[in-house]
Amino acid sequence: MASTAQSSPYISEAPSVQRIMAQVLLALLPAIGLQIYCFGWTILTAILISTLTALLTEAAMLKARGVPPQAFLADLSVVVTAWLIALSLPPVLPWWMNVLGTAFAVVVAKHLYGGLGNNPFNPAMIAYAVLIVAFPAQMTRWPAPLALLAAPPGFLDQLLLPFAAALPDAISMATPLDTLKTQLALKQEVSAIRASHDIFGPFGGRGGEWVALAYLAGGVFLLGRRIITWHLPLSFLAGFLGLAALLHALDPARHASGLFHLFSGATLIGAFFIATDPVSGPTTRPGQLLFGAGVGMLAYLIRAFGGYPDGVAFAVLLGNCCVPLIDMLTRPPSFGHKGERR
Q1: CB 3.0-4.6 Å disulfide test: which of 45, 109, 180, 307 passes with 126?
Q2: Which of 62-76, 280-294, 303-317 has the lowest mean pLDDT?
Q3: Which of 213, 175, 198 is nearest to 303 (CA)?
């Protein structure tokens, strides 16, 4: 058998945290670009507010713990958290709510448990959950697609919307998922709801479907770069879409298609960028498959039957609660201890 001689080193160096986080940020750029194109420049202000808050809070917490902040700030992990928070919140959310949610995520969800690598819950989803429980009205006001506005705000006006004393009603509207849930409660059928509201696009929400497609492209990029593996995102989507398709087949008048749910809300950012958090997720491959499928199904159940229009954040956090049990059940037996899991 022919073989090829190779020179040392034979063990490749693992990528640094900074390199991994930089590629995650790169994978998010297409979605940010499309969000700007479809909904305006306000998202840049939201990202800037969240990033500055995260960096300052991270530096303060590291200093309080007696840890040199330079190395930890340079690894970009807190920047990834900040971007995910900003992309999960309405861009027009008042600036101080963004600051509050981001600071809470860094202080409580991250450093209260020991900092990077020790948090049992996804910090970005903690921020979202705290804000939607505390400020439900503001968390449901999203910018309308620019294509639906007769006179879109100018560039500077869009950037300053998070600082506005009052948000003009003309530039915000309910999301497709909000609209669907509200109209279904009024005994409307899915087909009639989609036909009578401009917010719906060909297969998702107007504008939002293209942003979701960009998250899918970013997820494929992360898979290709081996930053994430297929186990979590594919099992998440399988659980989510399987349940969506089943309920749509049983009652299409009350349940939208799986395609609509795939390209609406936080489905694809949840599958590729949130559920794949290596710190708060399971460590074994079988555990990742179980976690992903369970979180995906729970996300759809909350969306379809719960009090909130989107259930990804709460599904991920509930899944995080189960990670120790999942790891215990799926961890292989230790060598020399047949049938025992350590």
Answers
A1: 109
A2: 62-76
A3: 175
CA distance 223 to 300: 24
pLDDT of residue 56: 96
Q: How many helices (H) and strands (E) does the chain have?
A: 15, 2
How far is residue 276's CA from residue 148's CA, in Å, rounded to a whole number?
A: 34
pLDDT digits (tens, 9 = 90+) for 246-291: 999 999 999 999 999 999 999 999 999 999 999 999 999 999 999 9
Tell me which of 156, 173, 190 is where a domain ends: 173
N residues, the chain: 342
pTM, two decimal places: 0.92
Q: Which sign, positive or negative, has the C-alpha torsion 148, 152, 155, 160? A: negative
The Cα 292–Cα 234 span in angstroms is: 8
Contact 138, 90 (CB under 8 A): yes
Q: State the pLDDT at residue 1.
A: 43
Domain boundary among 128, 150, 173: 173
pLDDT of residue 309: 87
Say which range, 72-81, 224-233, 251-260, 280-289, has the weakest mean pLDDT.
Answer: 72-81
Residues 139 and 193 in one domain: no
How far from 207 is each of 32, 33, 202, 280, CA to CA, in Å? 12, 12, 10, 31
> For residue 167, what pLDDT is reported?
78
Cis peptide before 9 (omega within 30 of 0): yes
Scan for tokens 């799926």, then name that residue.
330
Host domain of residue 304: 174-329
